[in-house]
Specification:
2 copies of one chain form a homodimer. With about 475 residues, chain A is an alpha+beta fold. The first copy, chain A, contains 17 helices and 18 strands. Chains A, B: Keywords: FAD, Flavoprotein, Oxidoreductase, Transit peptide.
Chain lengths: ~475, ~475
């Protein structure tokens, strides 16, 4: 089984916990420390099928110093601390595996600074990506990383998130310039800076990005911003075969076209989208494209891509150049998950997240779909294929252990297929505890170095314990 | 004084060293272990003004396993090990501050694999960037990172190098996908993989990139490649004022134009280039541009940039669209260092490498030039200004302690000016030991975390000791 759920074992005694909570109330006041069951439950689950594992208490700090003082208190009592943004992660990242205190950062929602000339800004960790883009609306700038959910920028940094336009703008790895971090002993450090590049020592920023709260708690984030392109247009094109679609992607990526988005949806997913969003796209492997640039540049890019697609059996280009048409198209794409769930009312989704070299993409998808066809389950596929990242969504009855086991077995084979060809078990969702069973297979001897890092940064293992590495 | 040179203090006794060398000869054969003075001296200096500090021996391994075995032997005797690529670094990175064994990786010069479909390749650490691009010539691909010197890709990874086209293609940070690394105890690990993105745990790849051989020795590197653009063109434009040039850069960066290169040269540097390369550019602040894309796209980009430049007092655009003209233009730019030295025969250069937010660039350059004007020294300025990175080259008589001290004082003020506005002491050269005096000012409390990392990875401090952090 891929994702064995550890039973929730509380690490500290009730009296130690009570003492810690009393000190936290002194620090933050009663109103910002909650032990109410509903609040705890809400903070113990994410958007995935993983079970709820509530913390013992939830706190709501408003400043970096409050976070640092709270961590110092918890450290003194050996109480685990779990950072929480919007709870939209997918691998049990926020589950309190050993109990402890969840640090809800949603009140740290200030946009500290925007520098249009420097194309950067600093935000508190609880600011969400939509909030930031709303704030930027009149500046001509935007923050492109778009994981679908309106996640917090702290959470996105912590999971190294990306989404549909990573092919052009990169992931959180490329777009976080610097961080303020609270360490396991309550120290506050700043990493990186505002220079767009630096060779001044170890890349602490990149070390914390993707560390899921296990090495420190990010409280402020400095981000790159981008000018809103002069022109944007989108297009949809269906293909006779999956191979034709993937070959088109390879050709486009080898050209010098700066694609903004290039998304693959399989026939099952197109069927789901048609039903859900009342559309009539052909039920066939389909690519969604988006082009950003100057007016003439975007037109030229689109023509070149159409020629590649036609060579590979793609036809029936549908263009979307107005803002309204583009929104309709991408809304349909963003609703893919709910559309898929709609294929089977009452079902939940077990989502995979492999990323493979593009040359292996067609084979990997083909084998994955063949494996699904031989099972009793339904599934749909969407992919950020410019990056080689795709999600197979297995539709399961959450009350059927047999179906869960079957989906997990399919998922496990998919992950090992991806790792065998040089890929990764998770392109953008992160490890949480759901992906831990695959880490050794993916990283081999390097896992010992990850454990070494965790021990160096968090010798008492109080920072989001049981995530990324078990020590 | 900015760069106090520590006297070379040999860490281990002569007998321990002899025993280690004897074992290394058993491992590699007499021919691949040298203690000849000329070989040691050659490996104890780089291209900068820092003094030669030779190692006690130099070895020439040919495989990762040989490197691992050599490190194991040295570790057993407590002998420092210093990796060496081409010796083109600039901050004393290869100086054997405490003696020890230099591991020359130039015989590890195999290109292991190129995957055109995936736009990636794996090379041994001793492969140089020109060797790789020569090898790629018929594939339609190239590796863009260009620090000027024909450095090894291992050395470029170790110093997080970049160069003129980082504004479009990023630095080594963005272009290393994975590594094979030998750790301080001789263990071999692989980091990263061939997926273009991953959220699977701590970003070990980015931790080793820029670590200058102090956390491990890179032996193989997996790199991103790019399709050669359909069209490229370059242009030179001079400005009435430095501010006009920098304002143009800011406007260009805020637009959606994917600039390939945008380089600033000050009047003194243009004068030097004219004399050295027999050219007749106006002696004024000047921008060198390069555009990559489709035929029409490149033309359009160039027209937009020309309009921005004209708004800011730029005039007399000189275009270079043929390969020959482009080469002549960029050769002149790449010869800037030698051209500057030519202004004062017999002089050597003390090169700075600050990188600042673009909004601070004009002020920072202005103050730096004013400071120079009040000194007795000559200097020239070139900048990768799309990134906010610039190099002030101070021309010094290497036999004049007074001039060295004056240049160091100017440099020190420049670095603190950059740090004060959110910048970094080194954008692309790295720390070595030359930049250590500025690390605390730049990183503050985060320096303790860098020391923590160094201790966790290298408890006996045998990996290139005295570089990046002192412990």
């Amino acid at each position: 089984m891929a994702t064995i759920v550890a039973p929730q074992k509380h690490r500290v005694s009730g009296s130690a916990l009570e003492a810690a909570v009393a000190e936290l109330k002194q620090l933050l006041g009663d109103e910002r420390v909650s032990t109410a069951q509903a609040v705890r439950d809400h903070h113990g689950r994410d958007e995935s099928w993983h079970p709820t594992m509530p913390p013992d208490a939830v706190i709501f700090p408003e400043t970096t110093e409050e976070v640092a003082n709270a961590v110092t208190i918890c450290a003194a009592y050996g109480v685990p601390v779990i950072p929480y943004g919007t709870g939209t992660s997918l691998e049990g990242h926020v589950a309190a595996l050993e109990g402890g205190v969840t640090i809800d950062l949603q009140r740290m929602n200030k946009i500290v600074r925007v520098s249009p000339e420097d194309l950067d800004c600093t935000v508190q960790a609880g600011v969400t990506r939509k909030q930031l883009n709303e704030y930027l609306r009149d500046t001509g700038l935007f923050f492109p990383i778009d994981p679908g959910a309106d996640a917090s920028l702290g959470g996105m940094s912590a999971t190294r998130a990306s989404g549909t336009n990573a092919v052009r703008y990169g992931t959180m790895r490329e777009n976080v310039l610097g961080l303020t971090v609270v360490l396991a002993d309550g120290r506050i450090i700043k990493t990186g800076g505002r220079a767009r590049k630096s060779s001044a020592g170890y890349d602490l920023t990149r070390l914390f990005v993707g560390s899921e709260g296990t090495l420190g708690i990010m409280t402020e984030i400095t981000l790159r911003l981008y000018g809103i392109p002069e022109a944007m247009s989108a297009a949809v094109c269906s293909f006779k075969t999956l191979e034709g679609a993937v070959d088109t992607v390879i050709q486009v990526m080898q050209s010098s076209i700066p694609m903004a988005r290039i998304e693959l949806l399989d026939d099952a997913q197109m069927d789901a989208i048609n039903r859900y969003s009342k559309l009539d796209y052909p039920v066939a492997p389909t690519l969604f494209f988006e082009f950003h640039g100057t007016e003439a540049g975007v037109k030229e890019q689109a023509e070149i891509v159409r020629a590649f697609a036609e060579e590979n059996g793609g036809g029936g280009f549908q263009w979307a150049t107005t803002q309204e048409d583009r929104s309709r198209l991408w809304n349909a794409r963003h609703m893919a998950y709910y559309a898929a769930l709609g294929l089977r009312p009452g079902a939940r989704g077990l989502t995979s997240d492999v990323c493979v070299p593009i040359s292996e993409l067609a084979r990997c998808i083909h084998e994955t779909k063949a494996d699904l066809a031989q099972s009793s389950l339904q599934g749909t596929l969407v992919g950020h294929v410019g990056d080689g990242n795709f999600h197979m969504l297995y539709l399961i009855d959450p009350d059927s252990p047999a179906e869960i086991a079957e989906a997990e077995a399919l998922h496990e084979r998919l992950v090992h297929r991806a790792i065998a060809c040089g890929g990764t078990c998770t392109g953008e969702h992160g490890v949480g505890y759901g992906k831990i069973p695959f880490m050794q297979a993916e990283h081999g001897p390097a896992m010992s170095v990850m454990r070494q890092l965790k021990r160096a940064f968090d010798p008492s293992n109080i920072l989001n314990p049981g995530k990324i590495v078990k020590i």
